[in-house]
Amino acid sequence: MPRNRSRRKTKNLSRSDRLKAGILMAGFLLLLAGLFYVGVRDPPVYQGLVPCVEGEALDYHKHLELQLVVDGEEVGIPAGIGIPGNCIYWIHTHDDSGVIHIESPRPYTFTLGHLIQVWGIDLTDDRYQGWPSNVEVYIDGERYEGPIRDAPLKPGSTIRIEVTTTQ
């Protein structure tokens, strides 16, 4: 007998109760869709910084070479850029060879600005480490004609930053 009562209650839901149930189901489906979207969209870039995550994201793993020349002398690129210890940024170095690693869950166009912020170096179009400077960027030997922070980090390329201090 109790089974029949629960069936009757289900069959006799009011129109407003069915509407509420439909709205709840639609909300749940939207939540699931939102979680899926978060998993496949571009990586979050907070104020230009790429996220620092546990472990390396090796789904997309590319390299490029970075060279820094200040007043005619090559300056080494330090090991451990983007690896503060407890996490790893999607743009980083493992050693002082100048090889920049781009390791993210999927392809994404990072820029020199992203790397500069992860590195923490004071480098703009007209300043290097607090000194007024002329700064030029070359990608595979060709001068980049835009703001240096917008220069793309192209996998397989060589980026050369030439700084001439003016003071």
Concise account of the structure shown:
The chain is α+β, with helices and mostly antiparallel strands and 167 residues long. The chain is built from three helices and eleven strands; from the N terminus they run H-H-E-E-E-E-E-E-H-E-E-E-E-E. The protein folds into two domains: 2-40; 52-165, Beta Complex (Ferric Hydroxamate Uptake Protein, Chain A, domain 1).
Summarize the topology.
Elements: H1 2-11, H2 15-40, E1 52-53, E2 60-70, E3 73-75, E4 88-89, E5 91-92, E6 99-104, H3 112-119, E7 123-124, E8 127-128, E9 131-139, E10 142-143, E11 158-165
Parallel strand pairs: 2-11
Antiparallel strand pairs: 1-4, 2-3, 2-6, 5-6, 7-8, 8-9, 9-10, 9-11
How does this model look, in words?
It contains 3 helices and 11 strands; from the N terminus they run ααββββββαβββββ. By secondary structure, it is of the alpha+beta class. It has 2 domains: 2-40; 52-165, Ferric Hydroxamate Uptake Protein, Chain A, domain 1, CATH 2.170.130. The longest helix is centred in the N-terminal third of the chain and has 26 residues, at 15-40. The protein is elongated, with a radius of gyration of 26 Å.
Short descriptors:
nine-stranded mixed beta sheet, Ferric Hydroxamate Uptake Protein, Chain A, domain 1, 3 helices, 26% helix, 167 residues
| Fraction in helix | 25-40%
Q: Tell how many strands the DSSP assignment holds.
A: 11
Radius of gyration: 26 Å
- How much beta, percentage-wise? 25-35%
Instruction: Write down the secondary-structure element order.
Output: HHEEEEEEHEEEEE
Number of helices: 3
Shape type: elongated
Helix/sheet category: alpha+beta
Q: What is the typical, i.e. mean, pLDDT? A: 82
- Provide the number of structural domains: 2
